[in-house]
Design a protein that fits this description.
By secondary structure, this protein is α+β, with helices and mostly antiparallel strands. It has eleven helices and 20 strands.
């Protein structure tokens, strides 16, 4: 058998047996009491959604944010899209973002004065690629939910632009959403408060601040993606920093300003305070800051797919850059944290035979939790991540299937990397 075929056969075998036995995805849930004190590190959309869920469960929540205000880093864009993934099949990736989108829409619909938080009354996603158009059209037919998703006639009178119309897709204003989430009376926000270290003390956790000051909590949730690896260096290889840059273009510099979110490989949002967000770059782990190259990329991509959208002289008037934290499979890390070295030691000899893996629950870090790696989809994904964490931390019924819970389990990233190394 050729080497490539043999390797694929081995990989498929690992997947089949891994689906039957999940010792390599350890769980040992000890529900927190209703009045537990929980620290959340990071006050962007990920931290804010977790805070709102836990506070609603009766816990006393303190958010620690290093910046002067919440939602200044990855959640610092003026606007960001809220859409599911468009793809056929029932893969966990597709299911996770579909359920995340539906939950985000439901949250928005429950809010008073929700127009200040964004607009989820329509979005259009398209590609000029004929193969993608065909796949998406089939996906819509198989989905058969015309109240949510329909195949759209040409946009901007362009005969080759067909795509997906999400009737409840759209955009959020991240800062407004975060501020709304943090209004619960059981949530306390501490800004300009950098956490230098976290230390386990029995089943509790001690946070270390400037000048050696400390404070102890019953549990900690890491939701500050860009700084999570500083607090847990053993996770650095699994949290990929990817700089994103969004450009701001005045609505008067458009020939046809978008009336709904446009998603085309990049994205454009309707005007907010006369500014339209056009994004976004994926530049890897490079220094932050707006660059001319990034601005040019965003406008060039828009002009390629919609030549009639911008005036010829249109130029960005500003923008925003931040690190997105991503994972290798583009799904978040949601669940109980674990010691990477301990986990590797316990299952290292059996990664190609998952059904023989020993119990790895001893590698779990009691009362330390993740809501990380939301990538560029945090405005969609964070609501479901937070709901799942609440269920796990309180012992309630899960909002997702076991298959989806396992798909975002933090250990799966370590396990897959170990399998890849073993197959080399």
């Amino acid at each position: 058998m050729p080497a490539t075929t043999l390797k694929q056969a081995q990989t498929d075998s690992v997947k089949r047996r891994g689906n039957a036995a999940k010792n390599w995805l350890p769980e040992k849930i000890s529900p927190l009491s209703a009045n537990a004190r929980v620290a959340i590190i990071g006050a962007g959309i990920s931290g804010a959604t977790v805070a709102a869920e836990l506070a609603s469960a009766g816990m006393l929540v303190t958010l620690f944010e290093a910046m002067p205000e919440p939602a200044m880093m990855a959640s610092g864009n003026l606007a960001g899209s809220c859409l599911p993934v468009v793809d056929r099949g029932n893969a966990p990736y597709n299911q996770w973002y579909w359920q995340s989108w539906r939950l985000a829409c439901q949250w928005w619909e429950r809010q008073e004065d929700r127009q200040s938080l964004g607009d989820l009354s329509g979005a259009f996603k398209w590609s000029r690629n004929a193969s993608k158009q065909s796949t998406w059209h089939q996906w819509i037919e198989e989905l058969n939910q015309p109240a949510l998703v329909q195949w759209q006639a040409p946009l901007y009178n362009a005969p080759d632009i067909y795509g997906v119309h999400f009737k409840q897709g759209g955009y959020f204003v991240p800062k407004q959403v975060v501020n709304r989430l943090l209004t619960h009376p059981r949530i306390q926000l501490r800004t300009q408060c950098l956490v230098h270290a976290i230390q386990q003390e029995g089943h509790a956790w001690c946070l270390v601040f400037d000048q050696g000051l400390t404070e102890t909590f019953d549990a900690v949730v890491l939701a500050a993606g860009a700084s999570a690896a500083d607090l847990l260096p053993e996770w650095k290889d699994y949290l990929q920093l990817n700089k994103g840059q969004v450009s701001h273009v005045l609505s008067r510099d458009w020939l046809s300003p978008p009336k709904m979110v446009l998603s085309y490989g990049g994205y454009a949002t309707p005007a907010a305070d006369d500014v339209i967000c056009v994004g976004a770059t994926f530049e890897g782990n490079v220094p932050l800051g707006l660059t001319q190259a990034g601005q040019a990329h965003n406008l060039s991509l828009l002009r390629q797919v919609l030549p009639q959208a911008l005036k010829p002289e249109a130029q960005p008037v500003g923008g925003h850059s931040a690190y997105r934290v991503m994972t290798s499979d583009h799904l978040p890390l949601v669940g109980q944290a674990l010691s990477v070295p301990d986990y590797q030691e316990r299952i290292g000899a059996c990664v190609l035979h998952p059904d023989t893996c020993p119990d790895a629950t001893a590698a779990l870090k009691s009362n330390l939790w993740f809501s990380l790696g939301q990538g560029s989809r945090g405005l969609t994904s964070s609501f479901l991540s937070a709901a799942l964490l609440r269920a796990q931390m309180t012992g309630q019924a899960l909002p997702v299937s076991d298959k989806l819970k396992q798909a975002v389990h933090p250990a799966r990233i370590i396990f897959r990397q170990m399998v890849q190394k073993a197959l080399k």
